[in-house]
Amino acid sequence: MTGTFGREPEMATIRRVLDETAAGAGGCLLIDGPAGIGKSHLLRAAVELAGSSGIAVAFREAFRLDLAAPLVTLAGAVRGCRPAAGEFDWLSSDQGLENQYQTLERLRASLEHAATRQPLLIVIDDAHWMDELSALAVRELVPALASSPVRWLFASSPVAQDTPGRQTLAWLSRDGNEPIHLGALDDAATTRLSTDVVGAEVDNTVLALTAGCGGNPLRIGKLLTTLRATRQLVISGGVATVVGEELPSSFIDTVQDLLGSLSVEAQWLLRATSVFDRPFGIGSAARLTGRAPAELFPLVEEAGTDFLTEEPDGLVFAHQLVRQAIYHTLRKTVRDQLHREAAALAREDGRPALEVAQHLLRTDRSGSAEAVTLLRTAAREVAGAAPATAATLMMHALEALGPHGPGRPALIAEAVGLLASAARLHEARELGEEALRAGLDDETEAVLLLGLAEAFKHGGQNQTAVDYADRGLAPPTVSEATRARLYAIRAHALCYVDQLEAADDSGARSDELGRRSGEYGASVFGLTARSLVAHAEGRLDDAYAHASTATELADRVGGAAVHRHPRIWLGNAQACLNLFEESERTFARGRRESEQLGTAWAQPLWHYYYSSLLAARGQLDDAAAEADAGVETAEQLTAYQLAVPLLGTLIRLAVARGELAQAQGHQARMRRWMSTGITAAPEDVVWAEGLLLHATGESGAALAVLTGLYDNLPDRPALVGTDPGAAATLVRIARPLDAGRAAVVVEATRRLAERNPGSAGSAGAAAHAEGLLNGDPVLLRQAVDLFRATRRPLVLAAALEDAAVAGRGTEPEATVRSRYAEALAIVTRCGARSDQRRLEQRLGAAAPAGAAAPPCLPLLSPAERRVALAVAAGRTNIQVAADLFLSRHTVDSHLRKIFDKLKVNRRVELATLVARECPGNHLST
């Protein structure tokens, strides 16, 4: 067993989590600390312990060059799983990653399936260097597999570069995975380590020297090994002592002294191969040193584990600090020549362009021009799967090119687009403005401004996006195709800064120019903006017509137009017209297309709009799980601008479910993202905050927050178009404090109904709002009848309750109570616990007569109970999603809540609980 001197607390934690994993629990453990502090040693001990506990192990060390190869870190780990797992055979080294969504879904399914046979430990050393797609996969898979026996163990060191791996580790830490910080060894541990290294007790001369290593295990080990190799440490009578005067004074001196104990040939092998910042084969080392491969075998044996270790991908230095110490022994001329030869070898072997470029950049300036070309090539190779990495590579290319290099403006224009895709808005703006100051032709400048507009639109900074689009549209010589794209992004941004007329005009222009120039993606995107405008203005049929036209066009022309996913807006328009089955089919097809195309940006939007559909149907638990999954997905994708409206949805749903503390937590999270400059529609943010204030008894504060929404409602009745029940709630908030604003709601809702004569929801909203304001029982009964036709149970329940209140004293008591009872049955079935408690008080009973006995697992909602029963039956999350027609993320969200409510951590615990409490359930047998 690998020794772990001084790391007893850390090993106790590792033992505990591995015991939990062996028993069926998942999770994540982070270890960090400076280089050489013993992280890798601790990982090796964890791997040995896992193996002896019957846990399969997938291990890989990440390297800096992993950044050039999407998914190489994680794929390399699981492909090397021990014992071998056939589930990962498809992850061949040449596996295409054109559709990263499907790749990650397949990887998740493989991990889930493998974990049903044997618990699994996935270990990534130097995880800060993991590639971007692996980092994205980790963000997705760690929470998704938390209920499966899959344990993740990551070790990292501080690095100056803000890598995707470092960002993911920080995200995991914020998500509740507190890292283990490894510090220096204490004196007792240093003594034990020293004794182990030299194989004998050590005296004060040894301890005095090791004290200068600052408790760093790597430095202590190398120092003692060097002293033995140079015969400056002798053992007499079972005790080691230091002799001699010229002792190494630093780690580099230590490594150099140890290097000097080898033959000249072995020294040259190590010094030459120190230019490889990755595992290397004997063949590469032979070509670099000018020797035959067979001649190197004895030299590798001579170097031993002090310098080299063997991994599945080849030989690698025992530690990066050791490699760097040897690398710095090379004179510059020798180093330059070795890098030139290594670049040639990498090119011959078909290594990634980034590797060739990095070797060239470490030579003299003559290699810089070629390096720029290679870096640009490397950026293009990985842009689809790893936009942040591509942006970093392009920034390196610009750095190598210099401030006055040829073609810099064109390179900047390309870099801005990549920075925009990676949501690095500040850098994109600075770089873009630099290029604009340098002077570009009108078309190139417009394309650059389009990239900036898209970046800031997708970053939620809509007014800035409008400003950039306007600048791009200013020159009359810009091509129609580019103008179409600028108008489309401008239209969408204007929707969110409440300039609806201008947004509609921009959408119409983008449609016209797009069709004329063949830029059909712009036409589709412009039409969806027009659908958004029509919805905001309460023109529900127009919203449906524009979205239908966009969808038909995308289906007909294909290509880039399909990637705009117009079914997002078509499904929403159908839901607003109460076409729930059509909306369901539209969302299902759109999601399938999105998965097939790998357009990850659309995933949070599918969650947002589908959650709205579920809420309209009264499926509050499923709606909350869908929205929660959307937030999780948005944050995993760093699409924080899409997290804001989803968090607003969660606030509203939590209020309806009587979970005010949760609602306040969602509000704090939403405000945190909005403090970065993200803007969102008032129906998503302001309405949610007003509802929360009203629910906590602060109606005056709610009215103040909602003032703008009240005043704009005549021109922007989107809220009522989406949720007809909102009209009565707005009246309810304003009526005691500001009758004028309550009257504005009534008038705005009446106009909405007139504008949509075929909409029972709009007509019901108008009757409900006016009936509530004036206490008119006839209008309230009319609202009840209209809402029955919409199949929106919660708005029907609200109208029933208000009709019951208005009928007291004028209608038979039995009629009033029947309305109360029907409303109570509805809200109870939907899980609207806030309304349920109020109606129970009004009825004077805890439940309506004849209510069913509490089901098994009473702490769970009906939606959660269905998931719990399926999981207890041995189904994986992916299988449960298929069985229950839910998204995988929604099942993940349900399961997290199930575990939290039932206080279990493992699927087997859930199965045991279900078997005990639900003996009649066929799924649990």
From TrEMBL:
InterPro entries: AAA+_ATPase, AAA_16, P-loop_NTPase, Sig_transdc_resp-reg_C-effctor, TPR-like_helical_dom_sf, Tscrpt_reg_LuxR_C, WH-like_DNA-bd_sf. Coiled coil: none annotated. Keywords: ATP-binding, Nucleotide-binding. CDD domains: LuxR_C_like. Transmembrane segments: none annotated. GO terms for molecular function: adenylate cyclase activity; ATP binding; DNA binding. GO terms for cellular component: cytoplasm. The keyword ATP-binding applies. Pfam families: AAA_16 (PF13191), GerE (PF00196). One of its GO terms (biological process) is regulation of DNA-templated transcription. Residues 853-918 form the HTH luxR-type domain. This is SARP family transcriptional regulator.
